[in-house]
């Protein structure tokens, strides 16, 4: 599932290509992916322009010139591709937004959604999300205060969107590995030094993943050499049995809080 770095990468790349351009066409192949009738969805979008793209947690918010907002959550298996109809990958497309000959294809939205809301509805919809881990207001002290009160495991706490926004299965494991902490550790049992390491690791891992374009396998457009670059830089996630980059010990997979998790049993305590 795309996480904070993947959605941030999409935001940055799409903003350069579609912001300010009037939408010329909309096709909906799967009505369950939207929240209003298809006719209304098309009427609201065609002729309008996306004036800005914002990321909040694992969502992208497409702010329209009509003051409406499109809220995208790709969920498991969701991805996007921008290009001409001749460049479109051989994947099932649920929604297509067009700017003349250029199209933004929404692919794999079987669990994800692309909903149209008013600004007020969006604020209410996202009000239960926890703080963004990369904003300047989320300081080391605030992180320590927040996590020290949680009784769950590191794994369950880091992926809980009501605690922190945007971290999922992949980066929770990467953060724990860089901090030298097992994902099965309980937050309330961590000392101040361990919590500081966790905060620093969170900042480093997420910034690096954004810098290298996240881990999504499919490029966003033809010639996109950035998207997916972070996948090769993952140290533990989905690397069961491979040698640890620090000590060479085979990496392990364990179930933590009913979620698969990858770690080094020697480097992490």
From TrEMBL:
Q: What is this protein called?
A: Fpg/Nei family DNA glycosylase
Q: Identify the species of origin.
A: Paenibacillus agricola
Indicate the segments forming the Formamidopyrimidine-DNA glycosylase catalytic domain, all copies: 2-112
State the InterPro entries in the record. Answer: FPG_cat, FPG_N, H2TH_FPG, Ribosomal_uS13-like_H2TH, Znf_DNA_glyclase/AP_lyase
Catalytic activity, reaction form: Hydrolysis of DNA containing ring-opened 7-methylguanine residues, releasing 2,6-diamino-4-hydroxy-5-(N-methyl)formamidopyrimidine
Pfam family of the protein (one): Fapy_DNA_glyco
Q: Give the UniProt family note.
A: Belongs to the FPG family.
List the keywords (alphabetical).
Answer: DNA damage, DNA repair, DNA-binding, Glycosidase, Hydrolase, Lyase, Metal-binding, Multifunctional enzyme, Zinc, Zinc-finger
Keyword DNA repair, does the record have it?
yes
Per UniProt, residues of the FPG-type domain are 235-269
């Amino acid at each position: 599932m795309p996480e904070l770095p993947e959605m941030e990468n999409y935001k940055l790349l799409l903003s350069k290509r579609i912001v300010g351009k009037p939408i010329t066409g909309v096709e909906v192949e799967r009505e369950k992916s939207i929240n209003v009738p298809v006719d209304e969805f098309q009427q609201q979008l065609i002729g309008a322009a996306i004036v800005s793209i914002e990321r909040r947690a694992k969502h992208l918010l497409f702010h329209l010139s009509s003051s409406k907002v499109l809220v995208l959550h790709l969920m498991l298996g969701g991805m996007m591709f921008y290009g001409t109809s001749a460049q479109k990958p051989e994947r099932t497309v649920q929604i297509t937004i067009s700017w003349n000959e250029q199209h933004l294809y929404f692919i794999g939205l079987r669990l994800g959604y692309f909903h149209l809301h008013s600004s007020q509805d969006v604020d209410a919809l996202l009000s239960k999300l926890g703080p963004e881990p990369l904003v300047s207001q989320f300081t080391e002290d605030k992180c320590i205060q927040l996590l020290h009160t949680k009784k769950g495991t590191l794994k369950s706490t880091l992926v809980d969107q009501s605690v922190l926004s945007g971290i999922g299965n992949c980066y929770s494991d990467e953060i724990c590995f860089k901090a030298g902490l097992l994902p099965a550790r309980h937050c309330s049992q961590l000392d101040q030094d361990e919590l500081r390491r966790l905060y620093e690791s969170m900042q480093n891992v997420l910034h690096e993943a954004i810098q290298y374009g996240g881990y999504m396998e499919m490029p966003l457009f033809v010639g996109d050499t950035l998207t997916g670059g972070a996948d090769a830089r993952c140290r533990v996630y989905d690397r069961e049995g491979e040698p640890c980059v620090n000590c060479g010990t085979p990496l392990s997979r364990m179930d933590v809080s009913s979620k698969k998790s990858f770690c080094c049993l020697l480097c992490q305590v």
